[in-house]
Amino acid sequence: MSTIVIEGCAIATVDDERREIADGHLVIEDQRLVAVGEGPAASDHTNKAIRRIDAAGKLATPGLINCHHHLYQWATRGYATDATLFEWLVALYPVWQHIDDAVVAAAARAGLASLARSGCTTTTDHHYIFPRHAGDLLGVEIDAARAIGMRFHPCRGAMDLGKSAGGLPPDDVVEDRDAILTACAEAIDRHHDPEPGARVRIALAPTSPFSVTGELMSETAELARARGVRLHTHLAETDDEERFCLERFGVRPLQYLDDLGWLGDDVWLAHCVHLNEDETVRMGAAGTGVAHCPTSNGRLGAGIAPVPSLLAAGAPVGLGVDGAASNECGELVDELRAAMVLARVARGPRALSARQALEMATRHGARCLGREDELGHLSVGALADVALWNLDEVGFAGIADPIAALAFGPTRPVDTLVVGGEVVVEDAELRTADPVTLAAELRRESGRMALAAPGT
Ligand code: ZN
Hints:
There is one protein chain. The chain is α/β, with parallel strands linked by helices. The chain is built from 15 helices and 17 strands. The chain is globular and about 70 Å long. The strands form two sheets. Strands 1, 2, 3, 4, 5, 14, 15, 16 and 17 form a nine-stranded mixed sheet that branches. Helix 9 crosses helix 11 (about 305-315). It folds into two domains: about 5-60 and about 375-430, Urease, subunit C, domain 1 (Roll); about 65-370, Alpha-Beta Barrel (TIM Barrel). It starts with a strand and ends with a helix. Zinc ion binds near residues 68 and 70.
């Protein structure tokens, strides 16, 4: 049994009582927390510790949970930087058509490394482009998460509504519905781990109302429920999408989703920017989660999600960085500040607090992924996914409230990151991969993508 003792730090437990400890300890045995409390750890723990971390001047929080991402987009950043979502997608589909397993592997490693350095211990990914002969794209992403040391919930995404059938994507990037459902079942068979402490869990995720048929949405929901996996998609991101749903289906996006059997507590939805007050209440009543992606929404000018209303309605609202092609970075801790700033621009200074933003990035994220029993809080018995933030430097000096310092203060890489008892970041440096090598691989693959799609 391996024991790690962390002492001398402030702790934001985000546990059931929302305990905050000014000077406390955490003890990890194997992959779980066995003690969280005030002052130094008990001697029966310290005596058998293989590692003691003096965390004076640091803040411990639960590892952050990223609820929405498209890792492959790390290879296609910087395109269509002043475009709406639909314009941006139309510009990028022809580029994405050329992805293959080497591109996805390099992009995933870079994206996961950036997430780890920003305090993220668990991430999802929504991958929905599967060109023929591109290789095992889901497999290389899962290998990348294993190599970086991150807990991973990849979503097998899909598109089956091409332009000729009234959808947005070109016909040559969509797949056949039966092939998609077969691939979804295979992904579950090969990779999904339903056991406590799982490192990899699969979700199913047709992409969006404007790129997927209603039949695929319904049949995917049936498959997911038969197999006990969760459902994810994009919803209500832009005015254009709302217009598309009203014109094609005669209803707003949320009603469309409800009609297809998609409102439930086993579903979480990216964005939900354009929901009215009634719709936020329906989300809360159904227990359907939201992946709020404030920087991406700002970058694409999509609008401001009604986060305070969703939280008041009882909906889980996690945070997401979204794909790095609509947010040229992917550092999750930055989204705490972005969420607060957007909410306050829309609704004033009490719209969203630093503690609420931290709760979204931890507990709410765990609820979105169905892991609230063992992730998103520092409690005895929870998985030992811990972020330690160094607040003992000039950028934070004099900020008395460590949670406000983290949420409002300058961005710094996490000091120490532990995932299931394994140290992934130490002294603000990634220990599982060399960032210089990752950058070189990403540069090479991004260049190859740009050459493959001239004129874009
Ligand atoms: Zn997205």
